[in-house]
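Q: Start with the shorter request: fold the first protein.
A: Done. Sequence, then structure:
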Amino acid sequence: MIGLLRCSHYSFGPNRLHYCGPDANAEILAYINNGVADPGLERLLGQFKTLYPYLRLIAGASGITDPFDERVVEAYWLGNELLENVGRKHLYKHLIDEQEIKKRLGGKDFRWIERKIAQYAVPHHSFHVLNVWRRTGHLERPHTLESMDACRVSWGKVMEIDGPTVTVETPLLGFRDGKLALGEPIQKKLIRRLESTTDIEQLKVGEIVSIHWDVPCEVITLAQLQQLKKYTLKSIALANQTI
């Protein structure tokens, strides 16, 4: 059940904006606020048409029966060793059959993705955001730089806390010499919920938080930060091959 709750924190941001998942934002928020999970939350998260198939893919490649196993959830959103268990053929088949990326992008654009799969792309959330240029939730339109930056899971060091307002130092996605790159960290204000029972409401200055669609998701360790940076930079490098 821990995996379900972790996944709900990352899913809340885009669902709040009606980008992904069912029209059930109030229900997902209630689960987060109460800090509990049950089959009802699993049913809701299972309706995220991009997220859930990726979790199934990662779980299956590692012999894990539960797609919401905490290790699987962490692999997709932050990154860990489970991503390396997904073979190139399995990722290719997943993008064709489950995500229907070739159908959505067309054969020419999908060939760019095929080349990236051959270079050992992994099913990390950032790979989908930065390399599938068309959004695949409820909005069938191209990503902008701003939407890619908001949609990738980013990170920030907590610099100041003022009630619901949290100021973090975080690098933004931008262009450098015509290619995607992470810029120098800037200070950015985020709004957290104070009614929740989860650890994100007991933040301390100096802690690192993961961020999705401007929502602080959870406090992460330095080891988790390194994994998130590693897979984000890999996805940026692959994206730059076709920019």
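Q: Next, the second protein, separately.
A: Sequence, then structure:
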Amino acid sequence: MTRQSGPAGRHAFSLIVFALAGLLGVAALGYPFVAASLGQGAGRAADAPLVVAGLLTLCVLGMLVEAQSGSLNARGIALMGVLVALNSALRLVENIIPGPGEFSPVFALIILAGYVFGARFGFLTGALTLLVSAVITAGIGPWLPYQMFTAGWVGMSAGWLPGRGLNWPRWKTLALLAGFGVMWGFAYGAILNLSFWYVLAGDPATAWVPGLDAGAIIARYGGFYAVTSFVPDLFRALGNAALLVVFGPPTLKALRRARRQLAFERETE
């Protein structure tokens, strides 16, 4: 009984750790709106290091729990390190040679890693990629924790996609991944914009005002996003789709081979 309950308990604890990481992100995004509505101010740039430290602590704790439960062995952690390093190098190239709009090459590999290895592996790959690449490119600032959370959510949600093990034809898998990449191309920008929308004093018709009802908030933010971010994010969305279609098949093949050779068992969500 004890030997059976141990792994189950560690699996449950792992889910709690990753749930806390997700809730920390939601709280970090929502706190300034609540604080401003209560008249307590909304500035939080000084809180960014604390949020990054909290998220990094949860990521490390998550890896330790995954290792203890057997879901993520030492070879799996090493593979994650390779993927994070490769993606960080791609982001360095992106900073040296910027693409159009908000195009970025890093999201395709985050999506594919989550799809092949599972949601928790995908979350760690996404969050750590943005952290390491920020250190390499000197991109550390109050925006970093929100980039880490959102990239983590990209990888995590990729692990929930259907199709794995169903012997889908390649075109169907690629269509699913491309559509997913397009969706997150827009969603990533929309989520990050929430981290600063509340402090912008722009068009009164699209600015945030404390005390608005949910419908008015959504309408104002929709107008703000359409004017400021839709076109740049379109390049990210189309870039994600193109990279997944062109480089998805060989990358999926390599990642699946690595999963078999490393005896890595994709976690059950």
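Q: Describe the second briefly.
A: Residues 122 and 155 are 4 Å apart (CA to CA). Residues 2-37 form the longest helix (36 residues).
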